[in-house]
Amino acid sequence: MSVTFHIPGALREFTAGHSTVEIKHSPATLAEALSALWTLYPGVRDRIATEQGQVREHINIFIGDENVRYTGGLASPVRAGSEISIVPAVSGG
Q1: CATH classification code of 3-88
Q2: Among 36, 77, 30, which Cα is nearest to 55's?
Q3: Strand, helix or coil at 42?
């Protein structure tokens, strides 16, 4: 079973305009899922991860409705059929 990424508007230029990207195999962790996404669309990597490979501070990632900052970060488990949402922080005044 696959895993689906929901891509925010600001990153769609790096995913050929796709609002969702399906990863056909079932990764065990968020790190594996992101690696598969970056293999398909390498341009999105630098917008999500730092040079050290960590998720950028202004990017929130949810597996289902759970923010991965509270479930293990890149080691968060990903189950087959999971939906992963990438949510950039919005700020302003």
Answers
A1: 3.10.20.30
A2: 30
A3: helix
48, containing H or E segment: helix 45-48
Boundaries of every domain in the chain: 3-88
* Strand intervals (E) in the chain: 3-6, 20-23, 59-63, 66-67, 83-88
CA distance 26 to 23: 7
Q: What is the pLDDT of residues 3-17, one digit of tens each?
A: 999 999 999 999 999
Number of other CB atoms surrounding residue 84 within 10 Å: 23
Instruction: Give the global pTM.
Output: 0.92
* Residue 93 scores a pLDDT above 80: no
Q: What's the Cα-to-Cα distance from 7 to each of 3, 19, 23, 52, rounded to whole Å?
A: 13, 5, 13, 22
Going by pLDDT thresholds of 50, 70 and 90, the confidence category of residue 43 is very high
Minimal CA–CA distance to 26: which of 91, 92, 79? 79
| Residue matched to tokens 């087959």 | 80
